[in-house]
Design goal:
single chain, alpha/beta, Dna Topoisomerase Vi A Subunit, Chain: A, domain 2, two-stranded antiparallel sheet, 8 helices, about 45% helix
């Protein structure tokens, strides 16, 4: 019985590696695995191994892919590049279905407190892409936090001398929210980023 308990604890601990999964959720996941058929458990384990072995970064934009170049870079012709922090941001923008350009994934933001500077993320690669001359606009879509703003400002300073238009996604009040609950910074951004109707 002791081996079973140890293996259960090992599985629970493994699930806590996932972001947002605490001990209770990890326990629920572990008990769910025990109740799966052997075939389903094998499928689950094979899927984990396969994704770890096959998924890599696109050699052009840095998004996730199982080939050298991702499907977006292969299929789209555009002079606009949207710069994001990580691959999951590409997924979020694609779900909105209002952008049909290319992407550049930084794989982080400038964060001195964590020891991350401009050379620790994919800014040089972005400058190289823009230096090619075919890019007309860069849309910076980093998160509206301190690190995202610092990174956006740094990129804008680097790219503007190259003659490319640099824009930042609008920020402000989200749809369905109430003004009374918005903080001062969000409200000021919403007013500053207003557009004509």
């Amino acid at each position: 019985m002791k081996d079973n308990i140890e293996s259960m604890q090992k599985l629970i601990n493994a699930f806590t590696y996932l972001p947002g999964v605490g001990r209770k959720t990890a326990e629920r996941y572990a008990y769910s695995i025990i109740n799966l058929s052997q075939e389903d458990v094998d499928f689950f384990a094979d899927s984990l191994r396969e994704v770890k072995q096959k998924i890599k970064f696109c050699s052009i934009c840095g998004n996730f892919t199982d080939e050298d170049v991702c499907e977006i870079c292969k299929s789209r012709k555009s002079d606009t590049i949207c710069v994001v922090k990580e691959p999951k941001d590409v997924v979020a923008i694609e779900k909105a279905k209002h952008y049909s350009g290319l992407y550049h994934v930084l794989h982080g933001t400038i964060n001195p407190l964590e020891g991350k500077g401009p050379n620790d993320i994919k800014i040089k690669e972005l400058v190289t892409r823009v230096s090619g001359g075919s890019v007309k606009e860069i849309i910076i879509a980093t998160n509206p936090d301190v690190e995202g703003e610092v990174t956006a400002s740094y990129i804008a300073q680097l790219l503007k001398p190259l003659g490319v238009k640099v824009s930042r996604i609008a920020q402000g009040i989200s749809m369905g929210s109430s003004l009374q609950y918005a903080d001062e910074v969000t409200l000021s951004k919403a007013i500053a980023d207003r557009k004509e109707m």
